Amino acid sequence: MPTNDKLSFELFPPKTEQGFEKLKTVVTALNQLHPAYFSVTYGAGGSTQEKTFATVDWLREQSIETAPHLSCVGADKQEIKLILERYHKQGIRRIVALRGDLPSGAGLGGLSELNYANELVSFIRDAYADAFHIEVAAYPEFHPQAPSANIDLDNFQRKVEAGANGAITQYFYSPDAYSRFIDDCDKRGIGIPIVPGIMPIGNYHSLARFSEACGAEIPRWIKKRLEEFGDDTSSLQAFGIEVVSRLCETLLERGAPGLHFYTMNQSAINLAICRNLGFDTQN
To answer: In this predicted structure, what is the pLDDT of residue 100?
Structure first.
């Protein structure tokens, strides 16, 4: 069955055996859409690192194309090299290279041998040349810690110049934010594919809390509608599926190279959106 290069899905490592069994069911359902790959988030310092490895191992056992996340804050070069060796031996060809979350109260720089995503990209390239396809993060509404939009674009350009092959954006709900970001990148000569990150809407309070933390804006008209649904989860999710489906349609019409879904380890909402877009499990 041919791969759908316009689709990819993000997973997070489950904390419990029950969660892991549920994840297997979710992956089985989503894999019917034949996505290009599943990415797996990463916890440095051993917190969820072993669970990341377990998730990656299971995906590879199913012959599923896998793109583990790898962050550099809090890790030394030898540790990162060992992880890369592990993934390379597993036949993994994609890495999502990230700086990672800073410890509470910590400032930028001086935390580890590699402190920024562009340094991690350079390290991977030096160690493995072109063995890995490297994805990096992009922020159409700009990173919450960036002093200015221009500085944030400078930081993104450094990652590209270090050797990134592509980028996945933070999620957003304004297609104009993405279009403007692409225009700004074009002006700088940044030509790598920049895939929109898509966050389905399943729970308003969780979405609002997460959006506040990561700097993703929920447009007022969406926020007010979501607040009105209250505990009516069914109506909220139906509205969310409609809104996100239209967002995806607009992005694809404007030339987005694909869609990367932040699944939150759920299948039903993601499948509903993909089917609205014409991505049929039978194709």
So the answer is: 84
